[in-house]
C-alpha cells in the first residue's frame, strides 16, 4: 500500500474573501447615492420661515446684482437704436403709437403707472403664498422655475445693456411717470439713481407675470380665476409698452428666460410643476421607519399605514 502524506498547517485557516461581498459593496454605495439624490429631488413640505427668508434674501441679491451691473449708457442706447430698427424691419415697431395714444387718456395711463410699479411684486408674492397653502407638493418646483428665470435674466442684463424706449435719443417716447408725476417706475423720477436704468432686456415684468398666469391657469379650478390668469400677462404686456418701459422684443426675452426656468425645473424634478402631486406624501418606508422599533401597530392595517397610539 502506498503511503499517504498529510500536511498540517499551524493556526486557523486564512479567511477567503467573498467575491459576492466585494461586488456588493460598490453596488450598495451606488444605491445609497441614488437614494440620496432621489430624496433631494423629491418635493418636500415647505416651511414658512425658511421660504420667507429665502425669498427676501433672493430678491435682495437680485436687486443688488441687477443694480451692480455697469450702466453702459453708450452701449445701451446703441442697442436700443438697433433693436428699434429691427422692429421696424419686422413691421412691429408700434410702441411709440401705443405710448402716445394711451398717454392721452390721463386716468388710464396713471392707472398703468401704478400697475407697473406695484402688481409686479404683489401678484407674484400672492401666487407664491397661494401655492404654499394650497399646493405644497408643487410649490418647490414652481419656485425653482421663478428663481431660474430670474437668475438667467441677470445674465442678460450684464451681457446686453439696453435703454428703455423712454430714454432713447430722438425716439420721441413719453416717460409717463415724469409727465403725470406719479409714483411709478424705480427707473424714473426720484428713484432713477437707485436702479439700473439700462436693464430693459429681458423684461421680468413679462417673465414673472407669465409665470403667475400659467401657474394660475394650470392649477386653479374656478373658470374666472383661470381667465384672470391668462389676462394678467396680456395686460402686463400692454402696460410695459404703453409706459415706454420696454420694447416688444424685451417681452420675448422675458418669455425665453421663463422657458429656461421651466427647463431647469423639469430637469431637476422630472416633471412640470402642475404635474406633480398636490400634497407632499411621505414614502411608505419613511413612515414605517418613523414609528421606530417596537412601536405598537394598529391591527387590521398594513404596516406602511401603521400609526403610533399616543
Automatic annotation (TrEMBL):
Residues 82-263 form the Inositolphosphotransferase Aur1/Ipt1 domain. It is found in: Membrane. It comes from Streptomyces sp. 900116325. It holds the Pfam family PAP2_3. It is a multi-pass membrane protein. The keyword Membrane applies. Keywords: Membrane, Transmembrane, Transmembrane helix. Residues 1-37 are annotated as: Disordered. This is Phosphatase PAP2 family protein. PANTHER family: PA-PHOSPHATASE RELATED-FAMILY PROTEIN DDB_G0268928 (PTHR31310:SF7), PTHR31310. Its main location: membrane.
Amino acid at each position: 500500500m502506498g503511503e499517504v502524506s498529510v500536511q498540517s498547517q499551524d493556526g486557523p485557516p486564512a479567511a477567503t474573501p467573498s467575491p459576492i461581498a466585494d461586488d456588493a459593496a460598490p453596488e450598495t454605495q451606488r444605491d445609497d447615492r441614488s437614494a440620496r439624490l432621489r430624496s433631494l429631488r423629491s418635493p418636500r413640505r415647505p416651511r414658512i420661515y425658511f421660504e420667507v427668508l429665502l425669498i427676501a434674501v433672493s430678491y435682495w441679491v437680485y436687486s443688488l446684482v441687477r443694480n451692480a451691473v455697469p450702466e453702459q449708457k453708450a452701449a445701451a442706447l446703441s442697442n436700443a437704436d438697433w433693436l428699434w430698427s429691427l422692429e421696424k424691419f419686422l413691421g412691429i415697431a408700434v410702441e411709440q403709437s401705443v405710448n402716445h395714444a394711451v398717454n392721452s387718456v390721463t386716468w388710464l395711463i396713471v392707472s398703468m403707472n401704478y400697475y407697473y410699479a406695484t402688481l409686479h411684486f404683489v401678484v407674484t408674492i400672492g401666487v407664491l403664498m397661494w401655492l404654499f397653502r394650497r399646493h405644497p407638493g408643487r410649490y418647490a418646483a414652481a419656485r425653482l422655475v421663478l428663481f431660474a428665470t430670474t437668475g438667467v435674466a441677470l445674465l442678460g442684463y450684464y451681457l446686453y445693456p439696453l435703454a428703455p424706449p423712454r430714454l432713447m435719443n430722438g425716439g420721441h417716447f413719453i416717460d409717463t411717470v415724469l409727465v403725470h408725476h406719479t409714483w411709478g417706475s424705480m427707473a424714473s423720477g426720484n428713484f432713477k439713481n437707485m436702479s439700473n436704468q439700462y436693464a430693459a432686456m429681458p423684461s421680468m415684468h413679462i417673465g414673472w407675470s407669465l409665470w403667475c398666469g400659467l401657474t394660475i391657469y394650470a392649477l386653479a379650478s374656478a373658470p374666472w380665476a383661470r381667465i384672470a390668469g391668462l389676462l394678467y400677462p396680456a395686460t402686463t404686456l400692454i402696460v410695459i409698452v404703453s409706459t415706454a418701459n420696454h420694447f416688444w422684443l424685451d417681452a420675448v426675452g422675458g418669455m425665453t428666460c421663463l422657458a429656461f426656468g421651466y427647463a431647469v425645473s423639469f430637469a431637476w424634478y422630472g416633471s412640470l410643476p402642475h404635474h406633480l402631486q398636490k400634497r407632499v406624501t411621505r414614502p411608505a418606508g419613511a413612515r414605517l421607519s418613523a414609528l421606530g422599533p417596537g412601536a405598537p401597530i394598529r391591527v387590521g392595517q398594513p404596516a406602511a399605514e401603521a400609526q403610533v397610539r399616543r
